[in-house]
Amino acid sequence: METKTKQDVKQSLQNDIVINRVFNLPISKVWQAWTDAGEFKKWWGPKDFTCPSSKMEAKVGGKYLSCMRGPDGKEYWSTGVVKEFVPERKLVVTDSFSDEKGNIISGSEYGLPGNWPKELLISVYLEEADGATKMKLRHEGIPDEMREECIKGWNESFDKLETNIK
Question: What pLDDT is recorded for position 15?
Answer without folding.
Answer: 80
